[in-house]
């Protein structure tokens, strides 16, 4: 998936310039003010936001605070751009939850480095979570709201672990979200579809049960909601690059 960036600035020249330099690598959305930005956030999967601070109506500080306080968007890293060259302005940016704060006129190389680092860290965290059977679900969180979101998500999946097909409408409702908002949140936060995330969580549970060595493999497969041993084995090997049998062997070697 090509990563998406939302650029918010009331100066068209700035929108055009940033769209030009970033458009070769990322999918770009632009907004001249906060209202349009909120509309795009409700319609699109956004991986990172670049926002000017000084704008008519809601300024960048207020918009950043709004985004970081809304569970639907709180996971999105935000870079604030400002001509305010004061320590107080910098502190205010950090207080409202900005992930980076860059003064105008800014270095393009500095901006590109900040974008790359913020997006790279998200991918690294996701890859670690995906490849390690014991990496905790809370690894990727950026805020208390995201921590609570993932905790509630984990609790729901575990309560419905035996079900072969989890009802995503009911899951979204449990999290007080529409299905579309839930899909955007999971996809942007974890780079996984809801189904992929649920399947990964089930495989992690299966790996944990296997490490305890108290249940047979058929019992574990039933407890984690897989319909067949062959299907479970295919999913397990695709996720962890080894068969369940090889995983059992690796556990015994580690004793």
From TrEMBL:
Keywords on record: DNA-binding, Phosphoprotein, Transcription, Transcription regulation
Top-level division of the source organism's lineage: Bacteria
MF annotations from Gene Ontology: DNA binding
First and last residue of the signal peptide: none
Residue numbers of 4-aspartylphosphate PTMs: 52
SUPFAM superfamilies: CheY-like, Homeodomain-like
Record-given protein name: DNA-binding response regulator
Lineage: Bacteria, Pseudomonadati, Bacteroidota, Chitinophagia, Chitinophagales
């Amino acid at each position: 998936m090509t990563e998406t960036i939302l650029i918010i600035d009331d100066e068209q020249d700035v929108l055009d310039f940033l769209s030009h330099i970033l458009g070769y690598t990322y999918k770009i959305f632009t907004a001249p003010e906060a209202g349009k930005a909120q509309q795009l956030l409700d319609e699109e999967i956004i991986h990172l936001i670049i926002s000017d601070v000084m704008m008519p109506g809601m300024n960048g500080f207020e918009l950043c605070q709004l985004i970081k306080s809304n569970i639907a968007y709180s996971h999105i890293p935000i870079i604030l751009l400002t001509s305010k060259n004061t320590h107080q302005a910098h502190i205010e940016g950090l207080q409202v939850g900005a992930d980076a704060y860059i003064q105008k006129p800014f270095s393009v190389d500095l901006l590109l480095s900040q974008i790359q680092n913020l997006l790279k860290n998200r991918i690294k965290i996701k890859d670690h979570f995906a490849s390690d059977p014991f990496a905790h679900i809370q690894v990727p969180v950026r805020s208390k709201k995201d921590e609570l979101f993932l905790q509630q998500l984990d609790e729901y999946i575990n309560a419905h672990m035996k079900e072969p097909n989890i009802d995503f409408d009911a899951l979204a409702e449990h999290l007080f979200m529409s299905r579309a908002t839930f899909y955007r949140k999971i996809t942007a936060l974890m780079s996984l579809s809801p189904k992929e995330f649920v399947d990964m969580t089930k495989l992690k549970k299966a790996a944990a049960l296997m490490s305890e060595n108290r249940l047979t493999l058929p019992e574990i497969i039933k407890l984690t909601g897989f319909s067949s041993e062959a299907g479970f084995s295919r999913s397990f090997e695709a996720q962890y690059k080894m068969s369940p049998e090889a995983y059992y062997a690796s556990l015994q070697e580690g004793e």
